[in-house]
Amino acid sequence: MSDSYAVLPVTLEVRSWLESEGLAPPTDDGKEISLQELKRAVATFPEIHAEWSEGPEFYDGVVSSKSGMKTVIIVGNPGGASAPCEFHFRGGDCELIEIIVGGIASFAGPQVIYAHSGSFIKVVQ
Length: 125
Hints:
The protein is an alpha+beta fold. It contains 3 helices and 7 strands. It has a single domain (4-124), classed as TATA-Binding Protein (2-Layer Sandwich). It has a 7-stranded antiparallel β-sheet with strand order 2-3-4-5-1-6-7. A hairpin with a 5-residue loop joins strand 6 (111-115) and strand 7 (121-124).
């Protein structure tokens, strides 16, 4: 897939948006995560491997699984290892993206994956 997938924590504003899309939002809030937490979440899965690199404007992680699934994580504005960061997945396998976001949701609360094209929205808890 060539779509780009953003990840947002569930907040009051996100809840309203989900309702406007006809989706039942969770009642709990999620939280933003740091680059350090993102790397740790990916590393918790023994079947997933990521190679991280740092560019002048963003970090990226080329992620692959032992089963052949792939995606790229782009981290914009990381602001330091423990500061909240914005990130999205550039293409790849939705199943792998959902696995990673599920790992994030396990410690950061509910998260929403949505395709920038508008073709896909999913709440992961």
